[in-house]
Amino acid sequence: MKESAVHRTIDGIWRIESAKIIAGLARMVRDVGLAEDLAQEALIIALEKWPETGIPDNPGAWLMTTAKRRAIDHLRRNKLRDRKYEELGWEIERQHEPDWDEALDDPIGDDLLRLIFTTCHPVLSAEARVALTLRLLGGLTTEDIASAFLVPVPTVAQRIVRAKRTLAAARVPFEVPPKTELAERLSSVLEVIYLMFNEGYAASSGGSVLRPLLCEEALRLGRTLAEIVPEEPEVHGLVALMEIQSSRFRARVSPNGEPILLMDQNRALWDYLLIRRGLAAIERAERLGRVFGPYLIQASIAACHASARTASETDWVRISALYDALSQTAPSPVVELNRAVALSMAFGPEVGLDIVDALLQEPSLQNYHLLPSVRGDFLMKLDRKQEACSEFKRAAALARNEKERALLLKRASECAVQ
């Protein structure tokens, strides 16, 4: 195998194995930043050796073994062996050569869970949580993250560095939080994964509607979390939501990159395997017998759309009821805007316009382009074309995504000539 091919293979292996390796190291050294450095050292060694020796039969175990040996060397060099060995306990002291296969296989689930809860700790800002999570759990480079969010590489690098320093300064323990804190911390984890997916599904800026890499990483993290904490219905709810939303990727964008609204999509292009996976995740959550939370309610809304064979068969009355439940469970101006859309489809645009007009003075929506966009749509349906044209132009001025802006300007021009 050519050296370039080996490097591509190593890159693929790293994306799959890096989170487990960093998690295992973090358990040893109790420092997320140091754990990543040690894992990177193991990667560098692999890049140097594997082109000559070939890729090992179990590359993940090889990387873990190498990284843990580097960790032990680090502890010894810094004269911290006694204290650190006390933390590690008999696991290392009991033998001259640790059983690396056991270290790789046995605690991985717990270690990954600890790492997820650490990188998504509420002490960090939302932007820092996303950047650090993508870096350590998503296996993305700083350049990948910067490209995904269309921000300068130094900005992302600073966020990651500050996040590591903040975790160290706050002495955030590398552990699954106690039951008294679990709900709050799990909510933070789900929020980060949800934010990552949404940015990939509807890019807030730039020249593309979708950023599939972000969606894929968010879905992978969600699936991992669902395996680790299978008793949490909201985890299954978020996974279900992401599975069903991901099913629309091929139908969501036209050949020229223009976004296609849900009601106009070619449903034959939807991925029904992903839809079935999403529906199965909802069933798993329902079997747990708990009250529906916001992610499970949103997944149920997505399921309504996915279950309709045509746009005209969509059960808007049920969707409206689900949005009523969501507005009670997780009230927000954006939820209220979405509820207005559902009610307008079920009971007429006048109903939706009344709700939207009540949101016009909401401070958090003053620069939110979807507010005038939705209002423009209602006005068009009510044959108030001149007002609709003004709303679409205002929405286009606020939109940061180029494709979305072009679509809004197109809608403005269409209502102007009618």
UniProtKB/TrEMBL annotation:
Superkingdom per UniProt: Bacteria
Coiled-coil ranges per UniProt: none
Domain DUF6596: 185-285
Chain ranges of the RNA polymerase sigma factor 70 region 4 type domain: 116-167
Ranges for domain RNA polymerase sigma-70 region: 25-79
PANTHER family per the UniProt record, alphabetical: BLL0085 PROTEIN, BLL6612 PROTEIN-RELATED
Name assigned to this protein: RNA polymerase sigma factor
Protein species of origin: Paenibacillus gansuensis
